[in-house]
From TrEMBL:
Origin species: Gossypium stocksii
Source organism, top-level taxon: Eukaryota
Gene Ontology MF term list: pyridoxal phosphate binding; threonine synthase activity
Pathway assigned to this chain's UniProt record: Amino-acid biosynthesis; L-threonine biosynthesis; L-threonine from L-aspartate: step 5/5
PANTHER family assigned to the protein according to its UniProt record, in alphabetical order: CYSTATHIONINE BETA-SYNTHASE
One Pfam family hit: PALP
NCBIfam families for the chain: thrC
Compositional bias (Low complexity): 46-61
Cofactor(s) required, per the database record: pyridoxal 5'-phosphate
Tryptophan synthase beta chain-like PALP domain residues: 173-480
Name of the featured protein: threonine synthase
Key word Chloroplast present: yes
One cellular-component annotation, GO: chloroplast
Positions bearing N6-(pyridoxal phosphate)lysine: K211
Length: 534
């Protein structure tokens, strides 16, 4: 089923339903249109309401408004055609060699290879390579900021690289992604001597974390499986907070039951209330995340509950779009460094995969160096890296303010090592005091970040101090969750109520008597301290 995008200029549409491929001025003239889906119904993009940079002098027609009684799904459905699908994806064993013949349809319910290893989603790269990098760049750029279903999503605007065969009717999306790439001007200048530091605010999202990027993909595929009458009653996950929030929200939107295993008394109230509010069936279990993960894997092996943790490689397909988005936001220029907090370690691989696909398909000519940042209280990857990859040992994760990465036995350890080795990557760690100080310093320059971003900023500070990252290096720190989910940690820090921590950047409120003189005295001292020094 081909889909019709209302993204290209009508003056380009005289040759085909996909004008960028067939317009006489386009380098891909006379090639068949690939943007199609093979499902029972059909769809195609409508080119009539789009603009294209390849013909800036063409007249711009008015966009056809939707019919009065239709929504954006109806509109997308009305514009579909019956072109044959040429793109596909399947599960294969992770890092399998070219001689491996084991593979599975994405419509199968499978989480591990026959040998018990991880799976990966493999796209038909030869089909994708029929279209050059300029084509893909223009297509992806043309969808930004639109409300055309489902391409208004930062994830589904790259649908051909995510789930190319899913029917748009099955997609469950909150138009996630398209998150802010924040120029950290003051923080970079004041604390690091850098002028090209950026923070990718993935936490400015539907449920407040980057997990939305992967969950829209997973829940959409579950929605498809249920329509295909596969044995899926609900979706379950073990969580340190953010995964459960994303799962419960997307399942609620689709009307699919969600089941959440949470470690008792180990996540913030703000994180706990999200799955409760979205109607999930929440089990608070007296164990840590690794214990919850063990239980959910055992349960999903016995009951028709679809496993939503990052053991499931579908989520990484959505998360990789954040890497593509970073390149888009830099006008397809590659940053020097990308720093990602790491817990269960799927996200560092997802970023690698997104960057690598862009390189292989000609959108960019290189990939950035990756840094994975871990909390020192839960640092198995860091210890493995420091041993020069000689021996991996799971650890007992100790309590950390960066609770979402408080994981001692990460599922995606092999994925993370692969990503780091193939990007000339580095692993760093942050103590509790370091990460909380970094969070406070960032907040003091206008941000409001989570402790996990504090871990990533600490890694940056260390690498900057050692000279590994240069003053002029374009560097992106990935912020994985919104600071509003972690207000209690900020309250404790600024109240100086954290045992054995100096909280040197704390900014507690000043207690003042209710009279004019006292207030003036305090303000005069404050303003005097802030006056420019000559």
């Amino acid at each position: 089923m081909a889909y019709s995008c209302s993204l290209f200029h009508s003056s380009l549409a005289s040759k085909s339903n996909f004008p960028l491929l067939h317009h006489r001025n386009h380098p891909k003239f006379n090639r068949p249109a690939p943007i199609v889906i093979s499902c029972s119904s059909s769809s195609t993009f409508d080119p009539s309401s789009t603009t294209s940079s390849s013909n800036n002098n063409a007249p711009s027609p008015q966009k056809n408004r939707r019919l009065a009684d239709e929504n954006i799904r109806d509109e997308a459905r009305r514009h579909r055609s019956t072109a044959k699908n040429t793109l596909s994806a399947k599960y294969v064993p992770f890092n399998a060699g070219p001689d491996c013949t084991e593979s599975y349809s994405l419509d199968e319910i499978v989480y591990r290879s026959r040998s018990g290893g991880l799976l990966d989603v493999q796209h038909d790269m030869e089909a994708l390579k029929k279209f050059d990098g300029a084509y893909w760049r223009e297509l992806f750029d043309s969808r930004v900021g639109k409300t055309t279903w489902p391409y208004g999503s930062g994830v589904w605007s790259k649908k051909e690289w995510v789930l190319p065969e899913i029917d748009p009717d099955d997609i469950v999306s909150a138009f996630e992604g398209n998150s802010n790439l924040f120029w950290a001007e003051r923080f970079g200048k004041q604390f690091l001597g850098m002028n090209d530091l950026w923070v990718k605010h993935c936490g400015i999202s539907h449920t407040g974390s980057f997990k939305d990027l992967g969950m829209t993909v997973l829940v959409s595929q579950v929605n498809r499986l249920r329509k295909l009458k596969r044995p899926v009653v609900g979706v379950g996950c073990a969580s340190t907070g953010d995964t459960s929030a994303a799962l419960s929200a997307y399942c609620a939107a689709a009307g699919i039951p969600s089941i959440v295993f949470l470690p008792a008394n180990k996540i913030s109230i703000a994180q706990l209330v999200q799955p409760i509010a979205n109607g999930a069936f929440v089990l608070s279990i007296d164990t840590d995340f690794d214990g919850c993960m063990k239980l959910i894997r055992e349960v999903t092996a016995e009951l028709p509950i679809y496993l939503a943790n990052s053991l499931n490689s579908l989520r990484l397909e959505g998360q990789k779009t954040a890497a593509i988005e970073i390149l888009q936001q830099f006008d397809w220029e590659v940053p020097d460094w990308v720093i990602v907090p790491g817990g269960n370690l799927g996200n560092i691989y997802a970023f690698y995969k997104g960057f690598k696909m862009c390189q292989e398909l000609g959108l960019v000519d290189r990939i950035p160096r990756l840094v994975c940042a871990q909390a020192a209280n839960a640092n198995p990857l860091y210890l493995y890296y420091k041993s020069e990859w000689n021996e991996f040992k799971a650890v007992k994760a100790n309590t950390t303010f960066a609770s979402a990465i408080q994981i001692g036995d990460p599922v995606s350890i092999d994925r993370a090592v692969y990503a780091l080795k193939n990007s000339n990557g580095i692993v760093e760690e942050a103590t509790e005091e370091e990460l909380m100080d970094a969070m406070a310093q960032a907040d003091s320059t206008g941000m409001f970040i989570c402790p996990h971003t504090g871990v990533a900023l600490t890694a940056l500070m260390k690498l900057r101090k050692s000279g590994v990252i240069g003053a002029g290096d374009r560097t992106v720190v990935v912020s994985t969750a919104h600071g509003l989910k972690f207000t209690q940690s900020k309250v404790d820090y600024h109240s100086k109520e954290i045992p054995d921590m100096a909280c040197q950047f704390a900014n507690p409120p000043m207690q003042v008597k209710a009279d004019f003189g006292s207030v003036m005295d305090v303000l005069m001292k404050y303003l005097g301290d802030k006056a420019p020094k000559h």
